[in-house]
What does this fold into?
Amino acid sequence: MSKLGCQCGHVISDTTDFIAYKARFLRDEDSEILDLINADICSFMEAYKEGKKAEWISNYFGKNADKNMRNDWVIMNIQSHYEVPHEGVMYQCEKCGRIKIETLLDNYYASFAPEGENWENVLKGKRRN
It folds into this structure.
């Protein structure tokens, strides 16, 4: 998504990284993927310790995968393998405060309006001021 219209007329833009009005989320019913990620990372770590990294990578990612892939890339790819298909996105309109939440339907966002006055920056990251 690069642009999403809001009922108030504002256009929500997603054309860069680290957007203060955007958040990614994992639905609670899908949270078991965290256990699957952990199990695969542990499996990789055991294979690495046993000197079987290349074999593990080939079995997990396929025979054409880079057998010398950096360990952090292996872990990142394990996470992405599970997270991307289950991840949702939400945006907050900077003008009216509505939250647009990605639904399970392709390219459809449900909209929710704020009830009070303190709606600014509800999706802003805790590490960025």
User: Anything to note?
Assistant: The chain has a mean pLDDT of 93. The beta strands are 3-5, 11-13, 22-26, 87-92, 99-102, 109-112. The CA atoms of residues 97 and 115 lie 10 Å apart.
